[in-house]
Amino acid sequence: MATRRKQGGGSRLRAYGLLILAVLAIACLVGWGVGKVLITPSPETTPRAPVPSALAIQLANADGGVALPVDYQTALDSLATKCTQDQAGMATLVNKGHDDLVAHGIMTLTRLIMLEYLNGEMTAGQAKADCAPLVSTYVTSNGG
Known about the structure:
This protein has 144 residues and is mostly helical. It contains six helices and no strands. It has helices spanning 9-39, 54-62, 69-80, 87-103, 111-121, 132-141. The radius of gyration is 34 Å and the shape is rod-shaped.
């Protein structure tokens, strides 16, 4: 007669229960870690707007407030990497060019338009160049 061995049902259930608890615990830890990575804010990657200098504010005021000083600052900052003139030198060139245009009856071109034109004409990443000839060409080509 074959004897049946008594199955340890209680201990087997307990082992499966512990296994399930261990798997759930690991899943919770992994989920918590993934959630922490996904929910944690990343460092700010959006560039901040430049703070307008007194020079940018002066140019904006001279143009009658048609644009924000930060727009002038952005243009000046970009030109600082392209022109041999510093920002004050660029402002002087642009002011003189603007005055020449106004003297010839050209009232629609602002200093910001001139700065943006210069910015577009100068190639980024190249060696700095003298921007005075470009201002002169701009003024001459626009009736100044």
